[in-house]
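Private note to self, pasted from the team thread so I don't lose it. Backbone tokens:
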């Protein structure tokens, strides 16, 4: 029971997604196999630390709001256990990050630190997007290197866009539980405009940032993004926020694919 609850408290889906993308970025960038292993382990440790810290810090608020998807309020794992796990994972990230060298190691540690800063206190402030911008940019620098400024910028923009768009289906619940980050302050329309704008900026950076002529595939993805984002929002007026959420997730997935292919660019 405790082990299962600990896994649930780690936010396993986003943790796995970010770890897989980080691993693929190291491969696309041509990192040594040993670096791929240590960097992937460091990214996983940072994601576990961030997820566990989030549930530990939010335990009382989750209990008051009756969250049925949170293992601590349900008694599936203790808050103390989750807190200890978060500390262990955060400590493990430091030597794992530094194994790839001092410069990339700093980016690995900085990415984790800003993820933890989002858990507290930034989540509850109008500066809530800042940790996403820094953490995702640092993730790209840690995994793919610092040779391409546009790769780091695009990753940061993608992370910032994800922050706004990820909360679209949950704005009402957030308001009831006291979360007052920038998306909650802006509301559904403002969050969609901010998140969609950041995703478009990320796509454009990935298409036009590399040297040489933009690829046909990249221009095609940019064209799809220009159409899909407003179309999704129009559909949401009839079918609810999930329609807009699906459209932006499609664009975000295309951006991730572009990001991976961009990691091989010279």
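Design output:
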């Amino acid at each position: 029971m405790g082990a299962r609850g600990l896994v649930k408290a780690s936010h396993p889906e986003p943790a796995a997604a970010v770890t897989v993308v980080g691993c693929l970025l190291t491969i696309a960038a041509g990192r040594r196999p040993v670096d791929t292993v240590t960097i992937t382990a460091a990214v996983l440790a940072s994601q576990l630390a961030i997820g566990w810290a989030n549930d530990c810090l939010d335990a009382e608020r989750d209990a008051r709001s009756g969250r049925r998807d949170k293992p601590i309020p349900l008694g599936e794992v203790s808050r103390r256990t989750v807190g200890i796990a978060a500390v262990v994972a955060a400590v493990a990230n430091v030597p794992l990050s530094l194994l790839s060298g001092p410069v990339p190691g700093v980016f690995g540690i900085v990415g984790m630190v800003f993820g933890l800063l989002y858990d507290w206190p930034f989540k509850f402030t109008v500066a809530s997007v800042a940790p996403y911008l820094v953490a995702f940019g640092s993730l790209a620098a840690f995994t793919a290197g610092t040779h391409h400024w546009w790769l780091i910028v695009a990753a940061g923009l993608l992370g910032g866009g994800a922050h706004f768009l990820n909360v679209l289906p949950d704005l009402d619940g957030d308001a009831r539980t006291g979360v007052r980050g920038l998306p909650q302050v802006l509301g559904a329309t403002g969050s969609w405009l901010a998140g969609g704008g950041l995703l478009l900026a990320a796509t454009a950076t990935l298409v036009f940032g590399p040297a040489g002529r933009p690829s046909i595939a990249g221009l095609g993805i940019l064209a799809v993004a220009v159409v899909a984002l407003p179309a999704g929002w129009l559909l949401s007026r009839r079918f609810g926020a999930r329609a807009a959420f699906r459209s932006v997730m499609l664009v975000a997935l295309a951006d991730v694919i572009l990001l991976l292919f961009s990691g091989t660019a010279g």
